[in-house]
C-alpha cells in the first residue's frame, strides 16, 4: 500500500549567483537526503553528499573533475569522518581504504584489492 505521507522534492540552487544551477537538493519527507554539486562548473556533478535520517552527513562521493570517475568516498558517523576509500592512481577504481580517529588523523590505511 502506498504511503501518501511520503514526499520527495528536488531543488536546484545557484549557489554563486552566476545564473547557472550548480547544486541540486533532493528532499525526502521534508529533510535533505541528497545534495549534488558541480564544483568546477563544467556541467558534470562531481560532489555528492548523502544525508542520514538525522540530517547529518552520512557519506560523500567525490569525482575526479578531469576523468569524471569516482575519486573518493567518505563515510561519516554523526557528521564525523570515520573512513574513506580513495582512488590514488586515477584509474577509476578505489584502491585505498583509510580509517580516521576522532581528530581526523589517519589510524590505518590498507590497499583495496582490485580485480
Ligand atoms: Ca564538475
Ligand atoms: Ca585506483
Write the layout of secondary structure elements.
Layout: E1 8-13, E2 23-28, E3 31-37, E4 47-51, E5 57-63, E6 70-77, E7 80-86, E8 96-100, E9 106-111
The chain binds calcium ion (CA) (2 copies).
Short description:
By secondary structure, the chain is mainly β. Helices cover 0% and strands 50% of the residues.
The ordered string of helix (H) and strand (E) elements is EEEEEEEEE
Which distinct ligands sit in these coordinates? calcium ion
Question: Helix segment count?
Answer: 0
Low-confidence stretches: none
The beta-strand count equals 9
Largest sheet: 9 strands, antiparallel
SS class: mainly beta
Instruction: Give the averaged pLDDT, no decimals.
Output: 89
Sheet with most strands: strand arrangement: 1-2-3-4-5-6-7-8-9
Structural write-up:
By secondary structure, the protein is mainly β. It has one domain. The protein is 0% helix and 50% strand. A hairpin with a 5-residue loop joins strand 4 and strand 5. The chain is globular, with a radius of gyration of 16 Å. The mean pLDDT is 89. The structure holds calcium ion (2 copies). One calcium ion binds next to loops.
Sum up the structure in keywords.
globular; mainly beta; single chain; 9-stranded antiparallel sheet; 115 residues; binds calcium ion
Amino acid at each position: 500500500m502506498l504511503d501518501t505521507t511520503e514526499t520527495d522534492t528536488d531543488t536546484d540552487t545557484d549557489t554563486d549567483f552566476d545564473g547557472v544551477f550548480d547544486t541540486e537538493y533532493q528532499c525526502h519527507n521534508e529533510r535533505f537526503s541528497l545534495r549534488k554539486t558541480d564544483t568546477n562548473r563544467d556541467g558534470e556533478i562531481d560532489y555528492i553528499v548523502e544525508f542520514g535520517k538525522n540530517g547529518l552527513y552520512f557519506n560523500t562521493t567525490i569525482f575526479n573533475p578531469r576523468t569524471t570517475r569516482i575519486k573518493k568516498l567518505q563515510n561519516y558517523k554523526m557528521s564525523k569522518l570515520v573512513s574513506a576509500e580513495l582512488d590514488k592512481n586515477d584509474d577509476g577504481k578505489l584502491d585505498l581504504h583509510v580509517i580516521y580517529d576522532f581528530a581526523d588523523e589517519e589510524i590505518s590505511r590498507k590497499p583495496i584489492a582490485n580485480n
